[in-house]
Structure of Lysosomal dipeptide transporter MFSD1:
Amino acid sequence: MSQTTSLREQKTVRWTAMALVSMGMLCGYYVADVASPLKPLLEGQLGWTSTEYGFYTGAYGWFNVFLGMLVVGGIVLDRLGARLTGFLAIAFMFLGTAAQWWALATTSLAGSQWLGVKAQVLMAALGYALFGVGIEWFGITATKIIVRWFKGHEMALAMGLQVAVGRLGTAVALGSGAAIAVALSVAGPFMVGTLALAFGLVAFLFFASLDRRLDASERGSESANPEDQFRLSDIGGILSDRGFWLLTGLCALFYSAVFPFLKYAPDLMVQKFGIEERLSGIIPSLLPFGTILLTPFFGNLYDRKGKGATIMLLGALFITGSHLLLAVPFLKFWPVAVVAVLLLGVGFSLVPSAMWPSVPKIVEERRLGTAYALIFFIQNLVALMGVPYLIGWVLDRFCLRGKETVTQEIAGKLEEIVRVHYDYTLPMLLFVLFGLLAVGFALAMKAEDRRRGYGLELPAGNVK
Ligand SMILES: NCCCC[C@H](NC(=O)[C@@H](N)CCCCN)C(=O)O
């Protein structure tokens, strides 16, 4: 290869880079969502309440928000580069998952309390909080890597495919988590996650060597030009942009209607649609499965035809309609759940496929790591920490309908477990509310784009 031709110009090489980075997304998303189908088992076998489950799932954002780890991650990324940040991110995910595995597998924490919380719940939550730092750092790193390798090429398609690979991890987690837990133990899915992340780390090391070759092919380092270096004062520049805030608001509200829903969807299937616990993740797993094809499809459409702001608005409308269908109390037949989840899948493909590639149209490339980190920070605060806890609290406080003790086969043995019954109408109405607010933000974003000329409605290559 000629030394003057950048490696990114070779299609096979840039797609190989993308595939290697996506392995981290696959394994990370598996672990991020594998607790969802375990909720009834955590309650039945380990005696957790919905509030404790909400506390644990909300822990995802603790360090990102309260220790500012997301902003730290953005700055580390912009200053020290994607290779080091990506490596640290996977290492955090690995350690956090191993800690969750231990918390659920050990008997040494049984009956103990730490800071007034069950020791097992707190230990699992701390593991999930560390994991949350890792996966968020990895998310911003992977995004910046795609921008670096794909600018001027199929960037929205690459971002869509990368998210699609992540969704595959979510689908596998939802579809297999409960079955693995019933066959092995409730800690079993986390053992699988720990091993998978070791594999993700190896794939990332291969990527890092390719990325070093990209530097060499461009005769410079990742941030060779001092003009391109990130400065702390850039944060002010990002925060003073109205378009940035509208996109951030849309992101926080849209994801509040989706990610926390996924944490409770298998339980909703059991409670409202009468699905067996072991199979409770099957219908929710249609959601990420649908997005695997649709997210890159819409990403490609955005690259070729534009209409990014319209795509985001449509997506917000789809998720609102889907939640409304699930909220109607008398629609309790499982085909309704299938239709609603498929509609949600369309919305869950439309918004991310246009939202993430729109950020570089609003923010300069050298500020991108920090911009994505700031967006993820607000998303963590609201959608990944606040709303999951709120839903768990609402379930315990307003939706409890009763408890019964039943006998169930677990890892080949018959065991007595407690089954808790909830009415999910109120939590579903909250999800509808988040959807409606997301529609409002999408409309405002469309108007701001017309006013400021970001180019959100234009195809790739036609933007300033
Ligand atoms: N190119 C940006 C990709 C972001 C994808 C986006 N991920 C997130 O929003 C993460 N902050 C949270 C991941 C949580 C995993 N369950 C997405 O749509 O997944």
In short: The chain has one domain: 8-208+227-452. The radius of gyration is 22 Å.
